[in-house]
Specification:
4-stranded parallel β-sheet; 42% helix; Asp/Glu/hydantoin_racemase; Iso_Racemase_Enz_sf; 8 strands; globular; Rossmann fold; Protein DCG1; alpha/beta; 8 helices
Length: 229
């Protein structure tokens, strides 16, 4: 991992699970902002292969935090992006180690969605277990109050590693249309495994903004680092 690139902003893109295929996809599809360098991190082998709720989030945080401390990665970058679509505890633990900007893709996407007010937004996530968790996370993000612009979370219940199958993609589009039927004009892709699909989905569902939360997270993190430099 090349950590010191002269005269370039150094950003670490963190996949806090142990599925290297997710990291490989991000490395392939993420645009690199000007005068910056993206490095990619995958959780260690004892991290969960998939994060599906509070227990695996906690395990993910513990294993990644230990590994990041051992490798002293918190010392070598200008900003850090945690690529789990949740209020992931690793964000807050890393902030205890460094004063550099640390951002989660959930926080980045919800912040962006509010700039599109008065248009409503909803979240398209992976599995059913995330629906109440993300609904509550949005509410907590705004201080525990209901958010009239938020239409709710809808699970695709589609294996994101199998989206090359046309039938699986059709199921994903059907669930995305459910978000639209609920009143959303902006759909936040609530899973790092869905990254890279925003263009294809916008072709399938005209008139709706589909937000790649990881790409947006990189852009927002880049701006935060510039503001604080």
């Amino acid at each position: 991992m090349n950590m010191r690139i002269a005269n370039q902003m150094k950003l670490l893109i963190i996949n806090p699970n142990s599925s290297k295929s997710v990291t490989d996809n991000l490395e392939e599809i993420l645009p690199v902002p000007p005068q910056s360098h993206l490095s990619f991190y995958t959780g260690p082998s004892d991290a969960p292969p998939e994060i599906d709720g509070p227990e695996t989030s906690k395990k993910s945080c513990e294993t990644c935090l230990r590994d990041i401390k051992e490798k002293e990665l918190y010392k070598h970058y200008d900003g850090y992006l945690v690529c789990c679509y949740s209020d992931h505890p690793l964000i807050y633990e890393l902030r205890k180690l460094t004063g550099k900007p640390i951002l989660g893709i959930f926080q980045a996407s919800v912040t962006y969605a509010m700039t599109r007010s008065p248009q409503k937004f909803g979240i398209l996530t992976s599995t059913k277990s995330w629906e109440p968790i993300l609904d509550e996370a949005v509410k907590a993000f705004f201080g525990g109050v209901d958010v009239p612009l938020f239409t709710g979370t809808v699970a695709s219940n589609v294996n994101v590693l199998g989206l090359s199958d046309p039938e699986n993609y059709k199921k994903l589009v059907k669930k995305a249309n459910k978000v639209v039927d609920d009143g959303a004009k902006t759909i936040l892709l609530g899973c790092a495994g869905l990254s890279g699909l925003e263009g294809k989905l916008m072709e399938s569902i005209p008139g709706v903004m589909i937000v790649d939360s990881v790409k947006l997270g990189v852009e927002l993190l880049y701006s935060l680092v510039r503001m604080e430099s």
